[in-house]
Amino acid sequence: MAKVLPLRVWLYSVVLVAAVMAVAALYYRSARQEAGAAAAGQVQRFLADHPDRPGVRVVALGSSLLWAATPPGQYDKLEGMDWLRITKSGSSMGYLHAVLDVLDRHPPGILVIDTNLLLPTNPDFILEEMRYAFASMLKAPVATATGIRLNDQVTMFPCEVQTPAAIRKQLAGLVAQQNATRTPPDIDTALQARLLQLTQRGVHIVVLEIRRSSQFEQAITHERQSWLQRWKAAMPPGPRVSYLASPDYPEPDLYCDGRHMNAAGARRFETWWSAQLQSMAKGG
After folding, report:
1. If residue 52 lies in a helix (H) or strand (E), which one and from where to where?
2. How many CA atoms lie less than 13 Å away from 194 in the CB half-sphere?
3. What does pTM read for this prediction?
4. Residues forming beta bridges with residue 97, ordered by sequence position
5. What are the b/e assignments for 49-63, b being 16+ CB within 10 Å?
6. Which long-range contacts (CB under 8 A, 24 or more apart) does 2-11 make?
């Protein structure tokens, strides 16, 4: 017969787990605040230094899809513009809201927003980040403990090639998550208002959709397009608001995992994206 643990042992265990989760939550919050401050600082220096120098300042905010598609240094020498992009993992603006405060004070010429940042926060992703925070907090500085870091400015996206079986599993999970959301979430009206306020100050807002491999696109296009249509209704295209979608790249060998571009995919993307940026910089 299995031995039953005393009640006090169970109570101690519950208290211990709760305490650990509380510490992890505080650590996660601290990491996010520090990452937000670091991102805001980078954008502040980029926009405030030498404000009178020629060229259009372009600030791009995005997810890991943007990081993978725009490797560091690839857009540093475009004629007529200065380029800075800041990325974070997962969906929603998250701690990049701190960057918007800087943009209010120092408006860039062009602000690029990856469509992933317009999506609502995924609770599962937050829990995953907190678990990672707990596992890492004893051996890493706060700024790196949750994977929230700004090394995307100097390092390539860690492109880990996955097996077809692993890709199918990820895709199935994504589809299941979409199907579980019966009621579409509301648009972030506070974010919408801040973006529209920037357009009134002369900033050109570019909402950029970075497409995944055909395998993923076929499964998620309807849901994402429905969400984008709601954004277009709330923030209509116009002289200061543009919606762009990257070309479809059907070759599966241009992606690490069906979603993130590898080096070859990023080179293909660069041909299209550089032309778009230079056209916008010239007022096209």
Report:
1. none
2. 19
3. 0.80
4. none
5. eeeeeeebbbbbbbb
6. none
**DSSP one-letter string for 78-129:** -TTEEEEEEE-SSSS-GGGHHHHHHHHHS--SEEEEEGGGGSPP-HHHHHHH
H-type alpha helices, the chain: 7-48, 64-69, 97-105, 123-136, 164-180, 189-200, 214-234, 263-281
Domain boundaries, the chain: 54-120+154-281
**Residue 119 Cα distances to 109, 192, 199, 223, angstroms:** 24, 12, 20, 11
Q: How far apart are CA 35 and CA 244, in angstroms?
A: 28
Distance CA 56, CA 79 (A): 10
Gap between the Cα atoms of 154 and 72, Å rounded: 6
Strands 81-87 and 110-114: unpaired
Q: pLDDT per residue over 234-264, tens digit each?
A: 999 999 999 999 999 988 899 998 889 999 9
| Rounded Cα distance, 79 and 61, in Å | 21
In contact, 157 and 71? CB cutoff 8 Å: yes
Contact between 240 and 206 under an 8 Å Cβ cutoff? The reply is no
74's tokens:
């690839």
Task: Fill in the DSSP letter of residue 153.
Answer: G
- Architecture (CATH level 2) of domain 54-120+154-281: 3-Layer(aba) Sandwich (3.40)
**Other CB atoms within 10 Å distance of the CB of residue 102:** 21
Contact 57, 110 (CB under 8 A): yes
Task: Give the model confidence (pLDDT) of 77-133 as tens digits.
Answer: 888 889 999 998 877 888 888 999 999 999 999 999 999 899 876 544 444 444 444
DSSP category for residue 135? H
- Kind plus residue range of the DSSP H or E element containing 243: strand 241-245
